[in-house]
Design brief:
The complex is a heterodimer of chains A (about 60) and B (about 400). Chain A is of the alpha+beta class and about 60 residues long. In chain A, about 30% of the residues lie in helices and about 20% in strands. The longest helix of chain A is centred in the last third of the chain and has 8 residues. The two termini of chain A are about 15 Å apart. In chain B, about 45% of the residues are buried. Chain B has 3 domains: about 190 residues, FAD/NAD(P)-binding domain (3-Layer(bba) Sandwich); about 120 residues, D-Amino Acid Oxidase, Chain A, domain 2, CATH 3.30.9.10; about 60 residues, no CATH class. Classes of the chains: A alpha+beta (about 60), B alpha/beta (about 400).
Chain lengths: ~60, ~400
């Protein structure tokens, strides 16, 4: 479970935080943090992100393999 | 008792700072906390503010932050055909928000509000009718207390959630926004005195793309699209820039901005025990164009009216504070809800419908609209009449008008 943040893409705008239904993300100044133990893989943040900085961990793994 | 306040406002944006000035003017002891080290940037905003808002708020345009007078709007249909609605008088300004917000902060501090930056709220907890706010202030953990908290901490508000009020948005009610501030644009190919807005499902699905002029040859070039799209807002904006070399060939990007725009999922209740929610945190934006500076500031001011009453009555219960929700919907929210209905209608229009509208509206029609000669009903009648001539739209229109 969980998402991965690409920090080179992230513009720390908080769009993902605003939409997270389980409140597992937080933006501290410029640093976005995510509690992947709470994440439910709903992908709302993946779609919401204006710059494509968030991806599902399992999809990233699938790509690597 | 230095750490006790009457009102703690979390978030030093337009809504929080405007509220702080109003509350401090009414002799409330006010603390404003912002997690950022600097008030203002990074902006999540296209920075347009209509003249009506200056009047409503009693705000005087200042050249230091009201950097570009705007005279109207140019709407560009998917076909490229444009409709210009312009008046001889200034219709609004594009702001330099980082300067604007500093001015608001200085004004609030002058009235006696205490502002602290680089102060991240780690926790909010109710204790015997008072809220204890735990703040990480430049690595030092401090505690402040107040009977009333105002959550003005933006779309990603967590303060309201800490006090048990869920302010999370639903994907359908959100637009995903992305913007470049660009300079050395070719001013021959966009209207420098207008807000330029481009429509079309290919250009900007369920939203629009904008060029908001901000000083000579410099503008906010941005886009807001439905948050349900597969592709990102950045993808659509980059595509548009590449497709329009006439405007952008020699341009440089001097700022990158991103953000989420609540466009319609209003909070039915903006309060809880000891809590008022304002601005983007309270989903206070216009569902049609996504603008929110004026609405957020007005919302902050309305919230302060309730805060003053609560302070006098020493009553901070949910029941008492609910008068803020009632007031806000009466004075602004209900009107915005109507505009949400209008947006749902606009969403149904196809590119062909937009093109038809652009072709069929006459210069006289546009002048009448821009000149304020038409009221809302007359405008709807005009658009309705034009759109009725297109088969397939009658059913949609009859449902919404």
């Amino acid at each position: 479970m969980g998402v991965k943040i690409d920090r080179t893409k992230c513009c720390y705008c908080g769009a993902c935080v605003s939409i997270c239904p389980v409140n597992c993300m937080e933006l501290k100044e410029t640093r976005l943090t995510v509690d992947n133990n709470t994440c439910i893989n709903c992908q709302a943040c993946v779609r919401m992100c204006p710059v494509g900085a968030i991806a599902l961990q399992k999809e990233l793994k699938a790509k690597e393999e | 008792m230095d750490n006790q306040y009457d009102l703690i406002i979390v978030g030093a944006g337009p809504s929080g700072l405007w509220a702080a000035e109003k509350a401090a003017s009414a002799k409330l002891k006010v603390l404003v906390l912002d997690r950022k080290q600097e008030i203002g940037p990074p902006k999540r905003c296209a920075e347009g503010l209509g003249l009506g808002w200056f009047k409503r708020l009693g705000l005087k345009p200042n050249k230091e932050w009201a950097v570009q007078p705007i005279y109207g709007a140019t709407l560009i249909a998917p076909s490229g055909k444009s409709i210009q609605m312009r008046t001889k008088k200034v219709a609004g300004y594009v702001l330099e928000r980082k300067v604007f917000e500093k001015h608001l902060a200085i004004a609030a501090a002058k009235k006696g509000a205490k502002i602290i930056v680089k102060a991240n709220v780690e926790n909010c907890e109710r204790k015997n009718g008072i809220v204890e706010v735990t703040v990480n202030e430049y690595t030092e953990i401090k505690k402040y207390t107040a009977p009333l908290i105002m959550a003005a901490d933006g779309v990603d508000s967590r303060v309201a959630r800490m006090l048990g009020k869920n302010t999370a948005n639903k994907p359908y009610d959100m637009d995903s926004g992305f913007q470049y501030e660009m300079t050395n644009l070719n001013t021959k190919h966009y209207e420098e005195k207008d807000l330029n807005m481009y429509f079309g499902t290919e250009i900007s699905p369920r939203g629009y793309l904008w060029i908001f002029p901000k000083r000579k040859a410099t503008a906010n070039v941005g886009i807001g699209i439905s948050a349900m799209q597969e592709k990102t807002a950045k993808h659509y904006l980059d595509k548009f820039i590449e497709a329009n070399p006439k405007i952008f060939e020699n341009a440089s990007i001097i700022e990158v901005n991103a953000g989420a725009i609540p466009v319609g999922g209003f909070l039915e209740d903006l309060t809880s025990d000891n809590l008022l929610v304002v601005g983007d945190a309270g989903h206070m934006t216009d569902p049609i164009h996504g603008g929110g500076i004026g609405i957020a500031m007005e919302g902050g001011a309305i919230a302060v009216e309730t805060a003053i009453k609560a302070h006098k009555a020493k009553n901070y219960s949910h029941e008492f504070l609910q008068q803020f929700t009632k007031e806000w919907f009466e004075r602004r929210g209900n009107q915005l809800k109507k505009r949400l209905k209008a947006r749902l209608l606009l969403e149904k229009l196809s590119d062909a419908d937009f093109n038809y509208l652009a072709e069929s509206l006459t210069v006289e029609d546009c002048l009448k609209i821009a000149g304020g000669e038409m009221n809302g009903k007359e405008k709807i009648m005009l658009f309705g009449k034009k759109l009725m001539q297109r088969p397939g739209l009658i059913a949609i229109l009859s449902k919404y008008l």
